[in-house]
Design goal:
Elements lengths: L5 H23 L6 E4 L1 H7 L3 H10 L15 E6 L2 E10 L17 E8 L4
Parallel strand pairs: 1-4
Antiparallel strand pairs: 2-3, 3-4
Length: 121
Amino acid sequence: MKCRNDNACLQSNEERKSRIRRLNDDLRKGRGKGELLVTPGVIDLANGALPDILALLRDYDAFSTEYDPYGEHDFGAFSYRGAKLFWKIDYYDRSLRYGSDDPANEAITTRVLTLMLAREY
């Protein structure tokens, strides 16, 4: 990316990060486009209570520099019934074959949110 000056680059990068964060939040909250993958360990843990776990995911807001160093809201961790769960959003091209060239561009990006037990990571 070419920039006119450092401030233009900073603003452009902040706008891009903000857009990625919004798209990720929309997916996590069930309002955005993308895929949701739930691992077998989470299914077993839920034992019929998957809606409860998905509500915890949807309401997640414990973003920190430890789990979200770039401010994109693409990773988090929470507990359910004493088990630690991780969730992660990855960015793919529309065919789901390769990584996306631009996660800020929803026209060329498919988001995949994976919900897993920490031990499955």
